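seq:
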Amino acid sequence: MVVDNRNEIREFLASRRARITPEFRTRWAAHNVRYHHTGRKHLHHPVVGDLQLMYEVMDLSADPGLSLVVYSAEPGSASQDGLNLLATWAATLDQLDQAETAQAPDEA
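struct:
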């Protein structure tokens, strides 16, 4: 049996909206959001730790609405070392997958 909680959800959202400050309402209504084509991101990877990466967004002219995001690390930085480790790790896993596929018996 599926329980329909839409009324409870509406009540919850209405009560939350009632507590929003006038400043938040003004900022939300302005919706002043900018699209950044370049910048710096701080990411945390569970294996290599903190990464400080620069990024650039490139629009694909052949496919309107699609973009390519390229991340890079400062040369010689700990972030570059982390990306190199991840690349090596990914390549090793890929080689292992290929070896397992080559050794698997045909299932035809």
